[in-house]
Write a structure and sequence with these properties.
The chain is mostly beta strands and 230 residues long. Helices cover 7% and strands 32% of the residues. Strand 10 and strand 11 form a beta hairpin. The chain starts with 10 loop residues before the first strand and ends with a strand.
């Protein structure tokens, strides 16, 4: 019997990414990325977080709110396979799903009490756009959630850094010091669509209130410009 469920965000994340372009393709790939989770007013209750401080990592259940479609496809093209090979949607973490629900494991870096937003969570390694709605938060439990012997299918090889990044000193000076390592890590992961390999093309994305322009030639990524976002 068909059923429908209504859900509402319990929180939203504040990250350095204003667009989907540039966001790491999985959580935990760039540990230097720091984000803040702010709870919606009705969920700003300290009792709901009691005991969370004892966990080093948490699961975020969230919504691909920028990828919602009326229809769905049984197959998608995973970036890990170059964007040309189709796999079953349920064998991937593609945002284009029957229900646009995502799951990310992030490191809990701290919990801070604020005067106007209640307790906020500082997390590391998130792969979410700024403002993404979060449906639920659950603790990561090592004995139940970690399976070192598990098979990884076509994604068995960890997605690591693939590009050498060059940021000219005069451009690096424009980046806040506490964001430099995170930006380098994001660029090293190669944020381009996997089907694009044009050394003459200039790519760009929003990061921490800035626009970052870069080009890639072989395995070398060179930042061409950095300036404040309009």
């Amino acid at each position: 019997m068909p059923q429908e469920f209504t859900m509402r965000p319990i929180a939203r994340i504040h990250s350095d990414f204003s667009t989907k372009f540039g966001v790491p393709r999985q959580s935990g790939l760039v540990d230097a990325l720091e984000s803040t989770i702010v709870f919606e007013p009705e969920f700003q209750n300290e009792d709901a977080l009691r005991g969370l401080e004892g966990f080093s990592h948490i699961w975020l259940v969230w919504v691909f709110d920028q990828a919602v479609r009326k229809d769905w496809s049984p197959t998608v093209r995973p970036p890990r396979l170059g964007g040309n090979t189709r796999m079953g949607v349920f064998a991937t973490r593609s945002p284009f799903r029957p229900n646009p629900i995502a799951l990310s494991c992030v490191k809990l870096a701290g919990m801070e009490q604020t005067a106007d937003r209640g307790t906020v969570l500082r997390v590391l390694g998130a792969d979410l756009m700024d403002g993404t709605p979060i449906l639920d938060i659950k603790p990561y439990v090592p004995y139940a959630d970690s399976h070192p012997e598990a098979l990884g299918g076509f994604a068995a090889v960890p997605a690591g850094e693939t590009l050498k990044v060059v940021i000219p000193p005069e451009l690096l000076e424009k980046v806040p010091e506490d964001r430099r390592e995170a930006l380098r890590g994001v660029l090293a992961q190669d944020p381009r669509p996997h089907y694009q390999d044009d050394p003459e093309r200039i790519y760009g994305f929003g990061f921490a209130g800035m626009e970052v322009k870069f080009a890639v030639n072989g395995d070398l990524l060179t930042v061409r410009d950095i300036f404040p976002s309009p």
